Amino acid sequence: MSKTIFERIIARELPATIVYEDELVLAFRDINPQAPTHVLIIPKKPIPRIAEAQAEDQALLGHLLLKAAEVARQLGLDRTGFRLVFNNGRDAGEAVPHLHCHILGGRRMGWPPG
Asked: pTM for the whole thing?
């Protein structure tokens, strides 16, 4: 099976504007931003989507959420607010089968989304 675009970014086979990295997660700017600030944070472990995460991924998923909030703070989004989005499956807008969280901010978000 071939690597996803995110696995290729993790492996540095494709360029990305990285804003945060540690041993478990990588955060980088989205190449098709939907808000003035649009960053993706992904686990380095290739989990296809949130519905396929396992009990052993609990600590990794918690780490990912905490780091998403930290990245949002570092980008100054905590002052006015930000949105975290996980898409699961084609109908939800999932484009890459590698679990990822969108960090969106820099403008007022509408509700309901979609």
From this structure: 0.95
